[in-house]
Write a structure and sequence with these properties.
- By secondary structure, the chain is mainly alpha-helical.
- Helix content is 65%, strand content 3%.
- The chain has 14 helices and three strands.
- The protein has helices at 20-27, 30-57, 65-85, 89-113, 133-153, 160-177, 181-197, 202-222, 224-234, 243-255, 279-287, 289-311, 316-340, 358-374; strands at 115-117, 120-126, 129-131.
- The chain has a three-stranded antiparallel beta sheet with strand order 1-2-3, covered by helices on one side.
- Strand 2 and strand 3 form a beta hairpin.
- Helix 6 runs antiparallel to helix 7 and helix 12 runs antiparallel to helix 13 (316-340).
- The termini are far apart.
- Mean pLDDT is 84; it is low at 1-11 and 388-394.
Length: 394
């Protein structure tokens, strides 16, 4: 029998495939991409359980209004993830520069034209879509400061550290004007991680840490909503309003090991943000401890494997930028889960890929897309085992 020759399309994704798509497939980290896609899929699945209660509370006749929208956001998030992951490191830098400029301009415009909700002005309405610019500013900032740190290491007269601090301080100032203390804390942690991984002297790191602690403490006296949340967290006074965190804790306890079943949770009917900031608690009630542990394990795997890959990179910029992006995602997930477990004051921060929201989904797709692009296997991208961390401020 004559051998049948397969069409060229049948050989797609073979190691001999030198097309751009083939090169991307064999250089991107499949485990990191798989964990990210799993989280996006879980986010869509869980939105179908939380959507009916949220729609009823807001008077929306279609019970799965939020689930359908989250599915659309997920498609956009996947497209963002895959589209950005094909970029070269230079392309990531250029994209970060453009995104930072645009988002900073939008954050300035928020002061005059922003949409106020829950006492904060964080959103801008564009063609009927509510966009939160600070969500996209975060990954762009981390990439830019990593770029500046690496330029400062070259000793060619570029004041990289000074420029990085100016970029960071501008972002912090605009966040505090909104105000958004939670995002300020998050980017400060990610900025500090990038600062430390760039190889700066420990005295500088300690100085930044001390300044951050003093700055964070001062928000208690500068912002009434911060003081209120901290007081509720530390006080045992039953007259204080702790409705959300109390119901979140009850939902987790009610779920037990295997949960009440999909759609059978009752606490989501009593908490306004169960489909956003408290989706972890709503999911724990319906699916139980086992799903909660899977979510935590996925975020831990994504962060730790990402950091492992990042620290093996040979280029200082790629190393610091990738590590900072994975720290950004990991810390946001940690803060959200900690709030749900009543381990820290409420922050109003989403659980990446799981909480409902278009800005959060697209921005997380951008963040992980950049991280995947930077950690792709390229000639000379990874240093030999045992090599000293690239770059240092001497």
């Amino acid at each position: 029998m004559a051998e049948i020759e397969l069409p060229r399309s049948a050989h797609a994704f073979s190691r001999a495939d030198r097309t751009q798509l083939g090169l991307w497939w064999w250089t991107v980290d499949h485990w990191l991409m798989g964990a990210t896609l799993a989280l996006i899929g879980l986010g869509v699945l869980l939105s179908f359980g939380s959507s009916p209660a949220a729609a009823f509370r807001l008077g929306i006749p279609f019970a799965f209004h939020f689930a359908v929208r989250q599915s659309i956001f997920a498609v956009g998030g996947v497209a963002m993830l895959l589209g950005v992951s094909v970029l070269t490191p230079r392309g990531v830098r250029r994209a970060a520069f453009f995104i930072y400029i645009v988002t900073i301009a939008l954050m300035i415009a928020l002061i005059f034209l922003g949409h106020n909700a829950k006492g904060a002005t964080r959103w801008v309405e564009i063609a009927g879509f509510t966009l939160q610019p600070s969500e996209f500013m975060k990954p762009a900032l981390i990439v830019l400061v990593a770029w500046m740190f690496s330029e400062g290491q070259k000793g060619e007269g570029v004041p990289g550290v000074s420029i990085a601090f100016c970029l960071y301080l501008l972002a912090v100032a605009l966040l505090l004007i909104e105000p958004d203390v939670g995002q300020t804390v998050l980017i400060t942690i990610a900025f500090g991680a990038a600062f430390w991984m760039a190889g700066v002297p420990m005295s500088w790191v300690m100085g930044l840490g001390g300044t951050a602690v003093v700055g964070l403490g001062s928000t208690y006296f500068l912002f009434q909503h911060v003081a209120s949340r901290v007081d509720r967290f530390f006080s045992h006074d039953k007259t204080l309003d702790t409705h959300q965190v109390d119901r979140a804790a009850q939902a987790i306890a009610h779920g037990g090991l295997f949960g009440q079943g999909p759609g059978e949770g009752i606490m989501k009917r009593e908490v306004p943000d169960m489909h956003t900031d408290f989706i972890y608690s709503a999911s724990a009630e319906e699916y139980g401890l086992w799903l909660s542990l899977i979510l935590i394990a996925l975020f831990m795997f994504l962060t730790l494997r990402g950091l492992f890959k990042a620290m093996r990179l040979s280029d200082p910029f790629e190393q610091v930028a990738a590590a900072g992006l994975f720290v950004l995602v990991g810390m946001q997930a940690f803060i959200n889960v900690a709030v749900n477990l009543d381990l820290m004051p409420t922050k109003g921060m989403t659980l990446p890929f799981i909480s409902y929201g278009g800005s959060s989904m697209l921005a997380m797709g951008l963040t992980l897309g950049m991280a995947l692009a930077l950690t792709r296997r390229r000639p000379g991208a990874y240093a030999p085992a045992g090599r000293k961390k690239a770059g240092a401020f001497e």
